[in-house]
Write a structure and sequence with these properties.
With 367 residues, this protein is an alpha+beta fold. The protein has nine helices and 15 strands. The protein has helices at residues 13-22, 46-60, 65-81, 93-108, 133-148, 222-232, 255-275, 286-294, 325-340, and strands spanning 23-25, 31-33, 39-45, 112-119, 122-128, 152-158, 164-170, 202-206, 209-212, 215-221, 247-249, 305-308, 315-319, 344-351, 354-361. A six-stranded antiparallel sheet has the order 1-2-3-10-9-8. Strands 11-14-15-13-12 form a five-stranded mixed sheet, covered by helices on one side. Strands 4-5-7-6 form a four-stranded antiparallel sheet, covered by helices on one side. The longest helix has 21 residues, at 255-275.
Length: 367
């Protein structure tokens, strides 16, 4: 009988070196993109993100792809504002600029940019090996704006086989450049560390695509999530707030924002439970290692302090920084439910030392 090495490493060393040179892990569970102004990023498998997004649309009863595409376009434009200027050349300037874009996209696992045809008032673009089609559409148009140094409106269609076609049309309107999104919570900055992250097992598959343990993985900027949330809020004004929410968001007052955060957290909880991952917690301190595996590895944050609050698994957690509190809380609720085997509720607040998250049984347990 042949021997099977379960620890066989199929990662790609040259790719890991590039990713480690660009992305910096911190001791607060973040991953910082050195080439995007040290913006935190979410290192997430594509199936996990797509499951989370589908759950979010189902919970809100909204089609949110267009909001995600517009957020992607603005976020991608901001990303290139941090990069060195694209190449300028008398010969082959456009080709060199596209090569620069594709090198960047390749490191982020977001596909490759191509031109199908151009016209005097626009162009037909292709994002090959694309990740999520709405993200690809916004990124494709933003990249074309950077290459052409002009504004374009866009529409897109997905033609399968991992390809998104973007139709860009010249836009004569004066549209200001996007600015950094402001956080509505307090994070601790943290220091660069040598902690393990998901991309340390990256395997190159093809141009613009890399995987971790067989799952395609992408790098999504925190700025993208923040813009997406902002653009989605107006469409939730008629959505009633849940009367049986799993989470109390201290300091979040707007009904639309509460509805969105509830939905983002619930989508994260459902996505985590769907993975079937095991969570073992014997003592409150075990939450630190649980968070390192299920949060920090992806750049979502980490637990640095855990205190038991009852005899039924209730715990008070300190998370110094969170990529987005709703996603972090939802994932932690999923972890608690997997560990305890029953429904959980949470209380979140943002303080000077970070995020305080209390997890406990959703229903009162008789003593």
């Amino acid at each position: 009988m042949p021997l099977i090495d379960d620890e066989m490493d199929e990662s790609t060393p040259w790719l890991i070196e590039k990713l480690q040179a660009r992305y910096a892990p911190t001791n607060v569970g973040f991953i910082l993109d050195r080439e995007s102004g040290d913006t935190p990023v979410w290192c997430v498998t594509l199936p996990a993100f797509e499951r989370w997004f589908a759950e979010l649309e189902g919970i809100t009863d909204q089609t949110l792809g267009r909001r995600l595409a517009y957020a992607s376009a603005e976020s991608e434009e901001l990303r290139w504002s941090f990069a060195p200027p694209l190449p300028k050349s008398w010969l082959g300037q456009q080709k060199k600029r596209i090569a620069t874009v594709n090198n960047d996209w390749g490191e982020r696992g977001l596909g490759q940019f191509e031109i199908i045809e151009t016209a005097s008032n626009g162009a037909t673009l292709l994002v090959a090996n694309r990740a999520h089609t709405a993200i690809a559409a916004g990124m494709g148009n933003a990249a074309w704006e950077c290459v052409q140094e002009a504004r374009f409106k866009f529409q897109w269609s997905d033609r399968g086989a991992g390809e998104t076609v973007v139709q860009s049309t010249l836009d004569s309107r004066e549209i200001p450049a996007p600015k950094r999104c402001e956080l509505s919570w307090s994070d601790i900055e943290g220091d660069v560390s040598s902690d393990w992250r998901l991309y340390n097992r990256a395997r190159h598959e093809t141009d613009g695509v890399w995987t971790v343990e067989g799952n395609r993985t992408v790098m999504l900027n925190q700025d993208l999530l923040l813009r997406f949330a902002t653009l989605s809020l107006p469409y939730l004004s008629d959505t009633p707030k849940s009367t049986d929410s799993r989470t109390q968001w201290s300091g979040i007052e707007g009904q639309e924002e509460i509805v969105l955060w509830d939905a983002m957290a619930e989508a994260a909880r459902k996505q985590f439970l769907a993975t079937g991952d095991l969570v073992l917690v014997a003592e409150p301190e075990n939450w630190i290692s649980v968070s390192n595996r299920h949060l920090a590895a992806q750049g979502l944050g980490c637990v640095t302090k855990a205190t038991g609050i009852d005899g039924h698994g209730g715990v008070d957690l300190l998370v110094p920084a969170a990529l987005h509190p709703a996603i972090v809380v939802g994932r932690l609720i999923g972890c608690w439910e997997r560990a305890e085997g029953r429904a959980a509720r949470a209380t979140w607040s943002s303080e000077q030392d970070g995020h305080h998250i209390k997890l406990e049984s959703r229903r009162i347990i008789a003593e």
